[in-house]
Design goal:
- The structure holds two protein chains of two kinds.
- Helix content of chain A is 0%, strand content 55%.
- By secondary structure, chain A is mainly β.
- In chain A, the strands form two sheets. In chain A, strands 2, 4, 5, 9, 10 and 11 form a six-stranded mixed sheet that branches. Chain A has a five-stranded antiparallel sheet with strand order 1-3-8-7-6, with no helix packed on it.
- In chain A, strand 6 (55-58) and strand 7 (61-66) form a beta hairpin.
- Chain B is built from no helices and eleven strands.
- The chains are: A mainly beta, B mainly beta.
Chain lengths: 111, 112
């Protein structure tokens, strides 16, 4: 079992929809999580990071952690076709910030 | 400014051939990372440099994989005697410290 699990999708939504992307994690000791976005034929880029308490908001993006269910969510409001990409959740490994990634969820936002 | 660049972008190798993949990090970035991304999977950590020192190579899958960064700038990932299971995208990332990493576009390796 991987340390962070994601449904690979694809998830297809119409433009303007609210998108919910989810990960589960196995170790309740994890305190810090990251969301990356990866466009086709590009490397991942860090979207946002969040600690295991509360929400974090950045523009149209909100990251949320539910410690009791070991669930990490990324919400995208007013989704745009340009949001079409693979979204990877990750947690840092050991004492460093080297991310251990989930397999990613492919999102398609159609006009 | 210029981001992380990788070359070649695409490489086709026959099984058994040796390949060398190059990474040019962002100027001044101390840390450099290599990842392997198989189709439909997230990136998997291979190895990490701080300047020219290879601090962690725990993710290298076999002794056929070798990475170097002799002058603390450009890095090369070498794969000897390539196998079909080596087919993947190889990503390089750099960072000023060990926090936010900036990824290159990757090299897609296909072993036939």
């Amino acid at each position: 079992q991987k340390e962070v699990e994601q449904d690979p999708g694809p998830l297809s939504v119409p433009e303007g929809a609210i998108v919910s992307l989810n990960c589960t994690y196995s170790n309740s000791a994890f305190q810090y999580f990251m969301w990356y976005r990866q466009y086709s034929r590009k490397g991942p880029e860090l979207l946002m990071y969040t600690y295991s308490s509360g929400n974090k908001e950045d523009g149209r993006f909100t990251a949320q952690v539910d410690k009791s269910s070991k669930y990490i969510s990324l919400f995208i409001r007013d989704s745009q076709p340009s949001d079409s990409a693979t979204y990877l959740c990750a947690r840092p490994s050991g004492g460093s910030y080297i991310p251990t990634f989930g397999r990613g969820t492919s999102l398609i936002v159609h006009p | 400014g210029a981001g992380v660049s990788q070359s070649p972008r695409y490489k086709v190798a026959k099984r058994g051939q040796d390949v060398a993949l190059r990474c040019d990090p962002i100027s001044g970035h101390v840390s450099l990372f290599w990842y392997q991304q198989a189709l439909g999977q997230g990136p998997e950590f291979l190895t990490y440099f701080q300047n020219e020192a290879q601090l962690d190579k725990s993710g290298l899958p076999s002794d056929r994989f070798f990475a170097e960064r002799p002058e603390g700038s450009v890095s090369t990932l070498k794969i000897q005697r390539t196998q079909q299971e080596d087919s993947a995208v190889y990503l390089c990332a750099s960072s000023l410290s060990s926090e936010e990493q900036y990824f290159g576009p990757g090299t897609r390796l296909t072993v036939t």
